[in-house]
Design a protein that fits this description.
mainly alpha, extended
Length: 74
Amino acid sequence: DLVAEITRQTDAGRVTYVARSEDPRDYKVDCAKIGAVLGFVPQMTVADGIRELTGALAAGAYPEPWDRRYRNTD
């Protein structure tokens, strides 16, 4: 779903799929509890976030987007 939304918004990049031997299950998450307990209400959709990020990249907000400081894995 994410790849489909990203490709709707930009033609930059190329998508390839890699076969993996990891657990192939996918999970749907119900976020009702965070709203009920903490009162959290999302202000943006995933599409909004993609638009914000691609706009920031195009504007040069991240001049070195592949730099380690933007990663949470090695």
